[in-house]
Structures are given as C-alpha cells and as structure tokens.
Amino acid sequence: MPRQRTFDTDEALEAVLRVFWSKGYEGTSYSDLVAATGVERPALYSAFGNKEAMFLRALERYASNYGNYVWEALREPTSRRVATRVLEGAAELTTRYASNTGCLGINGALAASDDAEPARRALIEWRAAGEEALRQRFEQAKKEGDLPKDADPATLAAFLLAVSHGIAVQAKAGFSQDKLLQVARQAVNTWPGA
C-alpha cells in the first residue's frame, strides 16, 4: 500500500519555484530543493518527478501566478497601454521579492550545459509564445489604426520583450524598482504614434 503524502504539494511547488527563480536550473541542486521544501528527496521524486519535471512544473506555476501580467496586458485597449503594462509589470515583478529578483524565464537557463538543454528549450518556447501573442495583438492594433501603417508588429513585439528582458537582468543585478520603472517609461515614450 502506498504511503500517504505528509506535505502540501502546492506549498512544496511554490518553494521549488522560488529556488529555481533564485538560482536558475543548473544552479539548483536537490539539496537546495530538499532544504527549501522540507521534503526528502524520494518524496519530491514521487510528487514531482525528476529535476527537469520539477522545473517544468515550476515554470507553469510561474507563468500562471506571476508572469500572467503579460496576458492581462494583451486586453488593454491600445498598443501603447499594452507596452506600458508589460514593462511596468516586468519592473514590478522582477523587484517584488528581495530573494527572487529577476525573471525565472531569464534566470532559469540562459547559459547552460547540455544536461540542461530541456529546461533551456522550454524557456525559449515559453518566451516565444509570449512574443507571438504580442505580435498578434500589435497586428490587431495596426488593423484598427492604433499603430501607423509602417509599424512592424513583429519588431515591436521583439523590442518590447528585449526591454522587458533587460529589465529582468538589471533587477537581478540590483537595480531598484523606481529606476526600472523609469526605463519602462523611457521605452514607452518611443512607441509609434506616441
């Protein structure tokens, strides 16, 4: 008869997420995960699978509980408001927690060994999905006349994410939220039609 779990898997997954967010995929060891969750290694395996599976579950949780500001921004009435919400959201999230600065999607696996390739690939796909959603939203804005006829929605989406990712890197390096919000405002001031 299988043993019953004696820990809250939701709380454990949140702890796993915070470790990956802080240390990245390769920087996180099983000892780190055990220490953060208070759950022994066999029970972690049983609940979540191997380290890669835990990382993918943590990424899903991050996307739905923290990175969801991007999807909410897509509902803004103008492309400029979309850009503002994305960049302000990035500045706010990447500096919200002193122990988890930056972005899991950027910190997770930028430089990684071959063993971390699945995690790196998952992050590339996750970021690409966000970029595609922004491109489609800007295509809509262009059709509605919210963007000039010569605006390139794909370039605008890439620009927005390049600035957002830069904000995440600077947050990890210790920039303050106020400074990053100033960067966000500067970028939005260059928005077409602004």
UniProtKB/TrEMBL annotation:
Stored InterPro entries: Homeodomain-like_sf (IPR009057), HTH_TetR (IPR001647), Tet_transcr_reg_TetR-rel_C_sf (IPR036271), TetR_C (IPR011075)
Name assigned to this protein: Transcriptional regulator
Gene3D superfamilies: Homeodomain-like, Tetracycline Repressor, domain 2
GO molecular function, one term: DNA binding
Transmembrane segments: none
PROSITE patterns: HTH_TETR_2
Xref: PANTHER family: HTH-TYPE TRANSCRIPTIONAL REGULATOR YJDC (PTHR47506:SF1), TRANSCRIPTIONAL REGULATORY PROTEIN (PTHR47506)
Keyword terms, alphabetized: DNA-binding, Transcription, Transcription regulation
Domain annotation HTH tetR-type: ranges: 6-66
Source species taxonomy: Bacteria, Pseudomonadati, Pseudomonadota, Alphaproteobacteria, Hyphomicrobiales
DNA-binding residues (ranges): 29-48
